[in-house]
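Materials and Methods. Structural model of CYRIA/CYRIB Rac1 binding domain-containing protein. The 361-residue sequence of CYRIA/CYRIB Rac1 binding domain-containing protein from Coregonus suidteri was retrieved and submitted for structure prediction as follows.
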Amino acid sequence: MRVLFTSDSQRVGQKSGPSAGTGHSWSFFCWHRNMGNLLKVLTCTDLEQEPNFFLDFENAQPTDAEREVWEQVDLVLKDARGILDELQAYKGAGQEIREAIQNPSDEALQEAAWEAVVHLVGKLKKFYQFSQRLEAALHSLLGALTSETYDDPTQHLEREQALAKQFAEILHFTLRFDELKMTNPAIQNDFSYYRRTLSRMRINNTPAEGENEVNNEMANRISLFYADATPMLKTLSDSTTKFVSENKNLPIENTTDCLSTMASVCKVMLETPEYRSRFTSEETVSFCLRVMVGVIILYDYVHPVGAFSKSSKIDMKGCIKVLRDQPPNSVEGLLNALRYTTKHLNDESTNKTIKSMLQQQ
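The predicted structure was written out as tokens:
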């Protein structure tokens, strides 16, 4: 995969790498090799030299080395669009539930509400089970993108662009899923009614056809999943944290640097006209913005002191400026995601300018 640099020392389209003039090409990259301890994760930052290349979100194809992981993840991503479509079309059983509650002695209305809710709970179970598949896919991608195959995360993203694209697609899906969930109170209302009704049926020894669909143990897990304001993001952040803890032989900065590099690449592509003009669709601009925000939030959960600290390797001021430079209506949801779903924004160590930039309406 060819990578574009804006350096005068390299022609546009020239392949980068150690053989492409180490002294010049790697001057763009601030990543410290073989950082083996937490102190360096907390203190190393050099934002003036960002990764500066075009990550082809539209056309990246897997190399032979990427193919095995790419095919595993592709099986999951093929179902992601359908999950979003189903969630977007989710209307809930609010009317049936209200009628059943208002007419407790009307068996026909009780039955109608139960049947409606059981059908919908099947969908909610499907969404929850997809989150588990997504978690496994993320583990596979992180394993590939943080391995010791290459010296730093920039090389990984540059040379494994198909996997980087899949990682971006997971982040894009996650933010979109959580946006839809947050604006649909019917999801939790339906599930609460299901659990209350099921409990009442058990007390009365009434056969419950829907119990086979979601047993009590599964119901507890699903309830915890939807109780979170951003359930898919929580799944991803927990999964990434778990990945770090399970791979103790892998320095933590392999993971955090992968995330910060992805954020930087998205920012640079969005603010650099030569790169942005290569997008063939405005949808790719929206995709890139969503991925940038998603990876910032993920970094904020996984990095010990988060994305907003002075030691963060993400240029938060630059990222917020990129968002502010878009048409306001198109990015308000993303700005809200940074305001309300990050972990460290309200820490005392967060730069006041960054807080002010996010608070502006």
